[in-house]
Amino acid sequence: MADPGLTLGLDLGTSGVRAVVLDPAGGIRAAADRAITAADRNDPNAVLAAVLAVLEAAVRGCGGPVSRLCVAGTSGTLLALDAHGGAVGPISLYSDTAAAPAQARAAAVGAGPVAARALEALARPGVVRLAFEPDWILGHLAGHPVPADLNSALKAGADPLAACWSGPVRALGLAAVLPDLAQPGASLARAGAGPVAGAMLHAGTTDGCAAALAAGLAQTGDAVTILGSTLVLKVLSDVPVTSAKHGVYSHRLLGRWLVGGASNAGGAVLRQFFTDDEAARLGGQVDPQRPTGLGYVPLTRPGERFPIADPELSPVTGPRPASDVVFLQGLLEALVAVERRGYRTLAALGAPEPRRLIAQGGGRHNPGWMALRAAQLPWPQATARFQDTAAGAALLAMAGFQRGIGAWGHSA
Fold first, then answer.
1. 40 neighbors 231 (Cβ within 8 angstroms)
2. 179, exposed or middle or buried, with CB in 10 Å at 0-12, 13-18, 19+?
3. Which residue ranges of the chain lie beneath pLDDT 70?
4. Can you give the pLDDT at residue 408?
5. How many structural domains compose the chain?
6. CA 98/CA 365 separation, integer angstroms
7. Over the stretch 226-270, which tens digit does the pLDDT of each residue have?
């Protein structure tokens, strides 16, 4: 097998940019990061400056030229571009919401909220095309537009089976201004001048997919649970699974499908009552052999869609026992119950049962959560290969090189 050389993965997070350089054996050669303030996260110039600074630092740190590069970004984050590729107006983040008229126009043809934001971005004076963050960065490095990966484009209306823009997107007139589409990991172009000049640029993916690759998902049934503010479950499947009712969707990933669902329950409920340090300290005193039986519903506000679709489901975090340890254990038990039911729901919808579980996200640092999962979940636990999303982006580029994935796709 040909040597992939040094491979750089870039993660465009909500609070910063991080790069990881992997050697051909998959070892970390270098890493670099730069924080981005919330005020600057919508500013294309600030984000681009952070990206270039991180690339320069990573290349200096790895001691050799980078052979290939891949970018992971937040799903559905958009940019409006002029005829010269310059950004027009602020970045439209995944968490932004379009105004009512754009939402109504999109909903009228069956398109979603990302398409509504695309309509708003397109209406800015001087805009000729739209891009997602990964292909915007890759296009800047290449010096010309490049296709978007199917995963970043999924929530905007890309059809992952047909590898084209869906009917609703075409009906809105967006297909002509959105990028062509490419398989994640596909070889797109070479970087021009700059810190990674000459490197092959590979189509990117979402941060969630990159995190799954970083965790080590490789075989059907491999699953990753990500406990951050919310609880996200992903399992590798041979077939796509979708359920609009449950918010379940599937991303294309190296010949398989990454089926995912996200609960409104998660770490946010813990932070209503404990700091992260308090939760970690108290978590070390949790006793998995003595269930509390408290039966909490770990939501911060009413409404849930996964693993059960119930917009009226109310939080239940009381009564609170006198012991903080017992109270925390009750909350953690409730999160483990959501995880167990979540994988059962995915299986009922057509995804495989987990063959092994890997924990990611900040929750993995809580010994109580990890101990309760080991005791109460019926699936084997495994350790993540990497905890760094940027490493997952690098692994995608390496896989694209090794599999010989070429660029393909169309916009209509």
1. no
2. buried
3. 1-3, 405-412
4. 41
5. 2
6. 36
7. 998 889 999 999 999 999 889 899 999 888 999 999 899 999 999
204 & 89 share domain: yes
Residue 281 lies in a domain: yes
For the CA atoms of the chain, what is the radius of gyration? 21
Beta strands in 178-248 (DSSP E): 181-182, 187-190, 200-206, 222-227, 231-237
Asked if residue 49 is part of any domain, the answer here is: yes
Q: Are 232 and 260 in contact (CB under 8 A)?
A: yes
Q: Which structural domain, as residue segments, surrounds residue 350?
A: 220-382
| CATH number for the domain that contains residue 93 | 3.30.420.40
Same domain, 35 and 131: yes
How many other C-beta atoms lie within 10 A of the C-beta of residue 203? 31
Phi, psi of 93 (to 5 degrees): -75, 155
Residue where the block lists tokens 């700091």: 275
Domain assignment present for residue 267? The answer is yes
Sign of CA dihedral 121, 122, 125, 127: positive
H-state helical runs in 350-412: 367-376, 389-403
Task: Write down the pLDDT at residue 412.
Answer: 33
Residues 177 and 305 in one domain: no
Is 107 in the same domain as 183? Answer: yes
Q: Is residue 11 part of a domain?
A: yes
Q: Are 17 and 36 in contact (CB under 8 A)?
A: yes
Asked if residues 104 and 149 have their Cβ atoms less than 8 Å apart, the reply is no
The answer to whether residues 81 and 135 belong to one domain is: yes
- Tell me what pLDDT residue 405 has: 63
pLDDT, tens only, 179-193 = 999 999 999 999 998
Q: What does the alpha-carbon distance between residue 50 and residue 35 come to, in Å, rounded to a whole number?
A: 8
Other Cβ atoms within 10 Å of 67 Cβ, number: 19
How far, in Å, CA of 321 to CA of 318, rounded?
8
